[in-house]
Design a protein that fits this description.
Helices cover 26% and strands 25% of the residues. By secondary structure, it is an alpha/beta fold. It folds into three domains: 3-41; 76-292, P-loop containing nucleotide triphosphate hydrolases (Rossmann fold), CATH 3.40.50.300; 298-483, Ribosomal Protein S5, domain 2 (2-Layer Sandwich).
Length: 488
C-alpha cells in the first residue's frame, strides 16, 4: 500500500509548502494555502533522472577551457540591426531570451518578422503558437512579408518552407518536437499559455511558468538551440510576476510603446552576453515593424514646440546609443491643497529632488504650483544627465521664458546646485551636430582635460559649473535676474 504525504498548496499560484503558512511565500496571498494529500511511491520505483528531468538530452561531459573554440559561440544576425544592437551584436547559439511587454504591443509581430528574416535552408525555425491558430499566423506572415524588400519578397515562400508551426500548449509534446526536428531557433509564444502535466496548476500560474521555463532552459543549453520566449507583463509591470523568470534566462528584453502611437522601443534590462540598457527603436506600420536608424530625428520631427517656454532639448544616452529628446514642463497655480507632481518619461523621485534643489539654491517657490514634466515621444530618460534639461524646462515654464534657439542641454545636477560631469560627451556632441544644432550646454568639469575631439567649429560648446550659470547662458538675456539671488 502506497504511503500518503500531507502538504499545503496555494490556491492562487499553486505553490506548495510542507507546512501551513498564513501567507504564501510565492505570490504573497493571505490565507490561500489549503491542505492536500498525495500518494508517495517507494524510492525503488523512482527513476534516477527524476520525474521532472528532460529526457533525450545529451549527457554533459567535462571539457578543459582551453578546448572550447570561438566558433561554438559565433553570433548570427537576426535580420534587424536594432535587435542585434540590443542583444549585444547578434544571436548566440543556445541563448535563452525572454521578450516581455504589454499585451498587444507587437511582441508576436517582432518575433514573426524575425523568423521571416532568419528562415533559410541553413537555419530552420520552430514557431510554437500557444495562443493563435496556424491560419492566423499565416495571414499575419503574408501581411508582414508585403513590407519587405523586393529581393526578400521573391524568397518569402522559401522562408515559409523553413518556418514550422506548432499549435501546442503541452510542454512535453513541445520538447519532443524540438528533439526530433532539431531547429536552430525556437519561438515560444507565449510562456503563459504553456503547461506541464507534472503540476496541477493552470497555465499562466507562477508554478507552471517557473517549471516550464526551467525545463526549456535545459533544452536550450543541452541541444544548443536558441529559444525566444514571449511573456506578457502583469499589472505591476513585471514579466509573469516579480523577478520570476529574469534569473532563468540569458537576456531579458522589454518591448515598450504607446499602443496608439507608432513608436516602439526595445531595451535590454539583463544580458549575459552584452551591455544592459541598450535601446532599439522601431516604428509600427501597416506592414509590420520598421527599424529607425536615427531616433533623434524621429523624436524631434513630431515636435514643433521646442522654441516655446517650458521646452528643452536634452542629449541623453541609452546604453551606447546617444539620442536627442524634447523635455517639456508645465508649471501653473495649483487648485489642490497639495500641489501635483506628474512625471512622464522621467523618474518621479528625481523630479522631486530637482525641484528641491531649485527651491533651496535659487530661492524659487513651487509650494503652491503644479508641475508636469514629460519626455516627448514615449521615451524614458533614465540617466542623471537629463537633470539639467528638466530643471531648465521647469524654470522656463515658470517664468514664461524660452531657451535660446538651436540649443541642446546635458548635465547632472548635484544637491548643492552644481552641474556634475557626465560620460559619453563626444557621442552627445556628435549627435547634436548631426541633427544641426548650433549650441550645446555641458558641465565645465567634463571638458577640463581639453580633449581635442570635443572641439567642433560647427557646434559651440557652452560650459557651466552651476545651475545659475546654465540659466544665464541658456535663457533670454537678463532672464536670470527675474529669478532672484540664489540662497546660500
Amino acid at each position: 500500500m502506497a504511503k500518503t504525504q500531507q502538504y499545503f498548496q496555494c490556491t492562487q499560484c499553486q505553490a506548495q509548502s510542507s507546512f501551513y503558512l498564513g501567507r504564501c511565500p510565492e505570490c504573497e496571498a493571505w490565507g490561500s494555502l489549503q491542505e492536500c494529500v498525495r500518494d508517495v511511491e517507494p524510492s525503488s520505483s523512482v527513476t534516477k533522472q527524476g520525474s521532472r528531468a528532460v529526457k533525450g538530452l545529451p549527457v554533459s561531459s567535462l571539457m578543459p577551457l582551453s578546448q572550447v573554440t570561438a566558433e561554438q559561440g559565433e553570433r548570427f544576425s537576426s535580420g534587424f540591426q536594432e535587435l542585434d544592437r540590443v542583444l549585444g551584436g547578434g544571436i548566440l547559439p543556445g541563448a535563452y531570451i525572454l521578450l516581455g511587454g504589454d499585451p498587444g504591443i507587437g511582441k508576436s509581430t517582432l518575433m514573426l518578422q524575425t523568423a521571416l528574416q532568419l528562415a533559410s535552408p541553413e537555419l530552420s525555425i520552430l514557431y510554437v503558437a500557444g495562443e493563435e491558430s496556424p491560419y492566423q499566423i499565416k495571414l499575419r506572415a503574408e501581411r508582414l512579408s508585403q513590407g519587405q524588400k523586393q529581393a526578400q519578397k521573391q524568397n518569402k515562400h522559401q522562408a515559409f518552407d523553413h518556418i514550422h508551426l506548432l499549435a501546442e500548449n503541452q510542454l512535453g509534446k513541445i520538447i519532443q518536437h524540438i528533439q526530433s526536428e532539431k531547429p536552430q531557433v525556437v519561438i515560444i509564444d507565449s510562456i503563459q499559455s504553456i503547461y506541464t502535466d507534472d503540476l496541477s496548476g493552470t497555465p499562466g500560474s507562477q508554478s507552471q511558468i517557473k517549471e516550464c521555463a526551467t525545463r526549456l532552459m535545459s533544452v536550450a543549453k543541452g541541444l544548443e538551440v536558441t529559444i525566444f520566449i514571449v511573456g506578457h507583463v502583469t499589472k505591476e509591470g513585471a514579466v509573469a510576476g516579480p523577478k520570476l523568470l529574469e534569473h532563468t534566462v540569458d537576456a531579458v528584453l522589454y518591448f515598450e510603446g504607446d499602443p496608439y502611437q507608432p513608436l516602439r522601443l526595445i531595451r535590454s534590462v539583463k544580458n549575459r552576453f552584452g551591455n544592459t540598457h541598450e535601446l532599439g527603436v522601431f516604428e509600427m506600420g501597416e506592414t509590420g515593424l520598421k527599424e529607425v536608424t536615427n531616433p533623434s530625428e524621429l523624436f524631434l520631427s513630431e515636435s514643433t514646440s521646442h522654441q516655446n517656454p517650458g521646452s528643452v532639448i536634452a542629449a541623453t544616452v541609452e546604453g551606447s546609443r546617444p539620442y536627442l529628446v524634447e523635455v517639456q514642463a508645465l508649471v501653473g497655480q495649483s487648485s489642490y491643497a497639495t500641489p501635483r507632481r506628474v512625471a512622464n518619461g522621467v523618474e518621479y523621485n528625481r523630479l522631486h529632488q530637482i525641484i528641491a534643489v531649485l527651491e533651496r539654491r535659487l530661492g524659487l517657490d513651487f509650494s503652491h504650483q503644479d508641475i508636469y514634466v514629460n519626455a516627448v515621444g514615449g521615451v524614458r530618460i533614465q540617466e542623471p544627465a537629463g537633470d539639467l534639461a528638466i530643471a531648465l524646462a521647469i524654470i522656463s515654464s515658470a517664468r514664461n521664458l524660452s531657451i535660446r534657439g538651436s540649443t541642446v542641454v546635458t548635465g547632472e545636477i548635484g544637491l548643492t546646485g552644481e552641474v556634475r560631469p557626465i560620460r559619453h560627451l563626444e557621442a552627445r556632441i556628435s549627435e547634436a551636430r548631426k541633427i544641426g544644432f548650433q549650441h550645446i550646454i555641458v558641465p565645465q568639469t567634463t571638458t577640463k582635460h581639453k580633449n581635442p575631439a570635443l572641439k567642433n567649429p560647427q557646434l559651440e560648446m557652452l560650459t557651466v559649473r552651476s545651475i545659475m550659470e546654465a540659466i544665464t547662458v541658456s535663457l533670454a538675456p537678463k532672464s536670470h535676474e527675474a529669478l532672484g539671488e540664489p540662497v546660500a
